[in-house]
Specification:
mainly alpha; DNA-binding; Arc Repressor Mutant, subunit A; homodimer; 2 strands; about 55% helix; about 150 residues; two-stranded antiparallel ribbon
Chain lengths: ~150, ~150
DNA sequence: GTCTCAAAGGATAGTTTTTGTCCGATTTAT
DNA sequence: ATAAATCGGACAAAAACTATCCTTTGAGAC
């Protein structure tokens, strides 16, 4: 139950682009080096993002990648789904439309709810939000987690 | 981004037990057949649930499994974490405590939020809830999803 | 006691997904 | 032309998931 590295790399790569001038063309090699992401892997990830219309690419000498939209208009959900495919918790209604599990459909409902909840978190956050130096007061999850770690150690 | 089959089987297996008389001992073979889950696999899954104290087992002739607590006291989160391990979205603070990603910590925060959101959904729902014939009005996610399917097809 | 039944636990194997790598093709600027 | 850079597909290694099998352990029946 995790985001894949590909998804994570995708977001980090996009944030790298977002930190620059709006239409600046950046080579995969630069992003790869600065974010410590394997180059060939990042290239594949960026390909998906191009297909999804999130970044645009220019080939040839002097080419590279740039965001296709403003960071405010790119949600983390868009990025993750472009890379990993649509978030789909419910096996029932995706692969097995004829859910035969006794009482299984209640589980399907729950999985649907979980999925919606996750999607909401990822869709309400844009790249621009992630670039802001601090999270809003009362929503600082990093601090919360550090506290938890302190408790258990 | 999915629950594993093991997790799903675990919940379905437990629901099977929950539908019976409180302390009735049920053999793995019965559950396996009724829920159409591979027997050996379910055996492994139930082992995890025993270790987690969610079910109790009796060996030997006439033995089997029964819930260790009332269905109202078993949350889906407990079940999933017993089988799949703790839900942990944040690679940063789990495996790589020294998060070096430029701007990566904002992502860590977001993943933390996603994780909490998911956990809440799974922890607020118990086996007893899943046994209820209908979900509460206004929370019928199944209907919601069927509508979505109807739209896209 | 010993026989049988059923779970416990470990080893192992097959499949799928993830995480890359490599290389030739294509496009672009110079 | 040539060099630079992405595109696209094939391929490979590693990890996770999904089982299966077999021996051991514990409990009850006789």
């Amino acid at each position: 139950m995790q985001i894949t590295r590909a998804g994570e790399y995708g977001v980090l790569g996009l944030l790298n682009l977002a930190r620059r001038a709006p239409a600046e063309l950046v080579m995969i090699d630069d992003v790869s080096r600065q974010e410590a992401i394997p180059k060939s892997f990042l290239a594949k990830i960026f390909q998906s993002l191009v297909k999804a219309g999130i970044i645009k690419s220019t080939r040839g000498s002097g080419g590279g990648f740039a965001l296709a939209k403003a960071p405010e208009q790119i949600s983390v959900l868009q990025v993750i789904e472009a890379i990993e495919g649509k978030i789909a918790f419910q096996r029932c209604q995706q692969e097995e439309p004829d859910c035969e599990h006794v009482g299984g459909c209640a589980l399907c409902s729950l999985l649907g709810e979980a999925q919606d909840s996750l999607k909401e978190v990822f869709s309400k956050t844009t790249l621009a939000d992630l670039l802001k130096p601090k999270t809003a007061p009362g929503q600082n999850h990093r601090r919360g987690n550090l506290q938890k770690l302190a408790e258990t150690n």
